[in-house]
Design goal:
The chain has helices at about 1-30, 40-60, 65-75, 95-120, 130-145, 150-170. By secondary structure, it is mainly alpha-helical. It is globular, with a radius of gyration of 17 Å. The model has no long low-confidence stretch (mean pLDDT about 85).
């Protein structure tokens, strides 16, 4: 049992490293320390987040299709009073998409903390699957709110990942 808990802890550590890397990547892109700080928006932030999440799932043997299916089931099963689950904050600044996305990341982090506390109280296991589902759900809802074409976004990420694999195979 201790081995399973240790393995779960390691996987959670890897997940949270990936999550922190998203914030770091965005901060690096917009940093004033760059010779030419890039102008990025919410779409690019979503691209970074979903790209990191997909790579994490591939490397951790998590079937993202199952996460997508579970997300759809959750959306379909929600009643009106539960429709706030994974809801994106209403107080987003229309003038700064990067700040908005960082607020979404903070909201996701707060949800991780709340889930962990609930799991401790109930005896449920706080694991990476729940974290991936939670993150995926918030990001999908942000896509809807910002009217981002999710399928197009995923195609662009797939193209980038293919290019990365080619470079790894042919250095």
């Amino acid at each position: 049992m201790a081995h399973d808990e240790s393995q779960n802890e390691n996987r959670l550590d890897e997940f949270f490293e990936m999550f922190d890397a998203i914030e770091d990547d965005i901060a690096e892109l917009v940093s004033d320390e760059n010779e030419e700080p890039r102008q990025i928006g919410g779409y690019e932030c979503l691209f970074i987040a979903f790209s990191n999440l997909r790579l994490y799932c591939e490397n951790s043997s998590i079937d993202l299709k199952q996460i997508e299916d579970q997300h759809k089931e959750l959306k379909e099963s929600q009643t009106d009073e539960e429709s706030g689950a994974f809801a994106v904050l209403e107080d987003l600044d229309e003038n700064n998409e990067v700040v908005n996305f960082c607020k979404i990341l903070e909201q996701i982090e707060d949800s991780f903390s709340a889930l962990e506390k609930r799991c401790e109280k109930s005896g449920e296991v706080f694991d990476e699957w729940a974290c991936v589902l939670l993150m995926y759900s918030y990001l999908r809802n942000y896509c809807v709110r910002e009217k981002v074409d999710f399928e197009n976004l995923q195609e662009e990420i797939s193209h980038l990942h293919e290019e990365m694999k080619k470079k790894d195979e042919n250095p």
